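Title: Prediction job returns without error message
Component: structure pipeline
Severity: low
Priority: P3
Assignee: unassigned

Description:
Job completed but the reporter wants confirmation the result is attached to the right record. Sequence as submitted:
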Amino acid sequence: MRVRIKVNGTDRFPVESELRLPLMIYLRESLGLKSVKNGCGEGHCGACTIILDGKAVFSCRKSTGDLDQSEIVTLEALSNEEAVHPLIYSFCAEGAVQCGFCTPGFIMSAKALLDRNPDPSGEEIKQALKGNICRCTGYVKILKAVKLAAKLLREGQGWISRKEILSDTQVLIGDSVIRPDSIDKSTGTAVYADDLDFPEMLFTKVARSMYLHAEIININIDKALKTPGVVKVLTWKDIPGENSFGPIKKDQPVLADRLVRYKGDAIAAVYAESEEAAVRGMEAVEVEYKELPHIIGLEQVLSSDCPEIHEGSGNIIAKMESGRGDISKGFNDSDFILEKELKTQYVEHAYLEPESCLARMDEDGILIVHVASQGPPMDAHEIAPVLGIPADRIRISGTVMGGGFGGKEDISVQIIASLGAYLTGRPVKYTFTRRESIAVSGKRNSVIMNYKMGFTADGRITAVKADLSALGGAYASVEEAVILRSSSFAAGPYTIPAGEVKALAYYQNHPPACAMRGFGNPTVTFGSETMLNMAASELGIDPLELRLKNALVPGMPTITGDRPLTSVGIKDCLQAVKDSLAEYKYPEPKEGWIIGTGVAASYKNVGLGIGMDDSAGADGEILSDGTLILKVGCVDMGQGAGSAMAQILSHRLGWPFNRIKVFSADTFRDPLAGMTTASRQTFISGNAVLELAGELERKIRQFLSESLNLDGDQAVIRNNNIVSQKDNKTLLSLDTFLKRLENTHTSLKAHTHFKAPQTSFALKEPPEGWKDPVSGRLHAAYCYAAQATILEVNPDNGKVNVLDVIIASDAGRVINRAAIEGQMEGGVVMGLGYALSEAFIQEGDRTVTDTYGKLGIWRIGKVPNIKTIVVENPHDDGPEGAKGMGELPLSMGAPSVVHAIHDALGIWVTSLPVTPDKIKSML
């Protein structure tokens, strides 16, 4: 059968083997159109959207052989080397691009809409984009981008020159600048790990346990080895080094040897010439099991006859305690005591880009691992012992990351791909299917919280006691660090005379719990802030006034006894929300619906703290063509770290923003910066870049003085000229300066390294207090936020619609205002999903939420109006006063939603998510 398909204006004739392929695979693999992203392969995420005969469709749901005489347009058709379509420009200009994995699909859905309706309403835009999911932006800036593009097109705007997109002069901290990486992401040229291909590449699939807990009696790989196309099959016996990994405890086998501990444990890795052959080989692996009793839930974990998942562990992963003061006195001093149990659910990260890795050996015997990882140096140290080689023989080459949210701190595909490349000598790619990602990847933990809080009659908090039982998974991952953070923030951003927090994390036969945005904070914020709202209701006190009365101020202690002295913005955030609520115009309730308002506040660490080395480097080199190469180790997950580094450098040095090229996340090329976690990179790497700017300025001045006989002592770069600060006189143009560099064969380079202020592992203040500020300094900095949520709820069916959100966040000094707003909007929407719909559900050995469409992720139609208030409270140690804040905006969603539902209906929901059935059952 001969089929003709016109793709981006060119006739294509798929061969017979391609006719059976999903259109998505044909476009990506046969035609190399990598803008078409494989997010789920089941039509749930919209990442693979293209335009087919004028309509936006999911290409994963179309068969290539059914499309004879069809016309297809992909994102590649909307740009060239010189210019881009107004839609692409608008997505960049409005800050609608974060990780970028979803962006091609959104742009194609938007183009199909604007082709038929040049002036759509907001609701029409939402309707057209309802099949596309974004996990990063919160959709607000995507809506603005489509509206801007529609306006430009109606005005007759043609394609926009790429040269006009980025600023060609200095940009300042605080400006809303277009992020350089947004251009590649919105044109589809950004390279994610699964977009890579190498000659003679092998594909990987892994045979995994179908049992929650079982003993492995025998593994037979004979049939798998005989499967056509299969090159190698590995079991635990074939691992050259250690068969274990883990970021804190190395308790997880690479390939299970004796036991499987959750449904999804890896047993055998199959490497084949094609993905189809790898699947057939995987299915041919035969495993004989003896099923063992499994443990799911706290009741089973605590039962006297509970079997141990890890021998000698008592099923306890870790314990943490925090607090200060005399807890008995605190409760004796109270007029009112409140006690409640609250519970949170497991949550899937659901980043749009499934985990993917390509590993290969180079000609020097170095293993190069192309992967989107939040911690490239840590990956090398996890892979090396398994292969039995030194870590310095492994190069982690970071690819663009399609969302991380903490989940890409952990090892997923890296070791399996590396083993294959190391033992076969051929490039190996391993990409999770979406179902595999959901089944195997780490989750936000589930926590049962027993809170007891004491108050005076006028609303002063006298004591907080909390017992936290965190349900982890089959392996430890970073659960120890997660409950450490939970115990640190379990009492909120308030000064409390007495506190006692105990946290235990437990093993169970469940996918591992790992880092997720907020890292232990959203759970306890739900617990503590719901307790405050309940207490305010009982005491008859305005809930914002209660918070303002107890809020931290500089020099006063947190629950651990830390006394932050600078950039304590919680009162400013609370007041900003209070003032906005006072001006808010409530809509008329719809028939059968009741409107309610809820509030919450939180705070979180900026940086690793707890006495850990928290440092980063920065390298800079000025090239004679005017490019300033900036190398940093910080990974950009879509939050804009790379752009922020360029903006800091441009601000301090005066270098044109569009001439700064940022490189990051390559362990052989770039300076180390540790893990992108703990909202730390703006503070840590930003300071390194700020110091680098000063070093480069010194070297420029030295060159002017020594090589050009100019007075360079006061020279600064302004508006593409080098001028004297003394009299503002132009010494020479920047281009002339660069020509002089070229003529004298001069290279201006600098390297800097920044280390955060000293902190201590100081969770529990001694009765006599900390001996000095450093002894009690848990973290170098904190960020603060407050939120109000206005919603409507229908008591007849329990449905909830969020109408408006007001969020105020203290980010220190603003670097890129649009980027901060984007982080706030994205965090708000993720927090609302956490509150109302998101859950990873496992019932026995069945994963209920086994597809992307079942996870409860919010789509664009649910998004409320979001008012973002950026509070600037500069930090003395931050780069130009800046500090991080990307995680915190998620945390206030759940308690503010629960509070608003109480305001509307008079009920307190104490477990998440707050589903309609749960509301109905309480009425």
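Comment from assignee: result matches the submitted record. The first helix runs from residue 16 to 19.
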